[in-house]
Each structure stands twice: as C-alpha cells, then as structure tokens.
Amino acid sequence: MAKDLFHESVKIALQKDGWQITHDPFYLEALGTDIQIDLGAEKLIGAQRGKEYIAVEVKSFIGPSLVYDFHLALGQYMNYARGLRKADPDRVLFLAVPEGAYVSFFAKADVKESVEEFRLNLLVYNDLQQVVVNWLKV
Question: What CDD domains does the annotation carry (predicted)?
C-alpha cells in the first residue's frame, strides 16, 4: 500500500515529540482481511504509569475536495478504530491532519461536531517543520 505524502514528516514529528515508532506500518486484522494503519508508536509516560500506545493514520488533505478527503478518512478511521478495539484495546487511534487543513476545514463548527460525534482523535502536524502542533483527543 502506498504511503501518504506526509508519512515521513509525521513519523519525524512523532519522534521529536518523544514517541518511539514501533510499527511502520501497524498491521491489523479487520473486516475479514489484513489492513495497515500507517504508524504504531509508544511512549514512556512515567515509571509508575508505564507506556502509552498509539496508532496513527496519516492523511494529507490535498485533494480537490476537503469534504471528500474527510469522508474517506472518516470511513477508514472508523473501521480501524473498530479493529483496534478488538485486537489491541490499549492502543489509541489518531488521525493525523496537516495544520493547514485543520485551520481551514477542521476548525469549522460542523466539522468539529462531526469530529466529536464520531469520536475522532486528531493529531495536527506541520509538514514543513515536521512537528506535532496539537493533540486533540475526544
């Protein structure tokens, strides 16, 4: 499967943010087949608390329609989230979106409502600086 345009930028951004990349890609069985979430990572959150585990699906949102890109990403995210709940329930799924798309699209009231209603965790990244800008977990 082809990697998203900003795959490496998000991978570097996660590493800068203290995450260890453990899977590239993260393989999962769902919908009766093998699927690939772009990245799996872990981070030590304190000696007493152990590790935090995430899976990240990277999206570029550079198509001619942000709404269409969102529909595709939403469907993918929902299926991946379902698969993770069964196979790896301790791992939290995030949809990685570029800062530009977040500002121009995801900040709109209707889109925010959709993000909350469908329980999308967002990782906002800057692809040029290769940094995580924000974590938005519902």
Answer: XisH-like (cd22366)
Domain at 124, CATH number: 3.40.1350.10
Alpha-carbon torsion angle 22, 10, 97, 125, nearest 10: 120
Instruction: Measure the CA angle with vertex 14, ends 31 and 62; round to 5°.
Output: 65
Residue tagged 């977040």 (tokens): 102
pLDDT score of 29: 85
Number of domains in the chain: 1
Q: What is the pLDDT of residue 47?
A: 61
Low-confidence ranges of the chain (pLDDT < 50): none
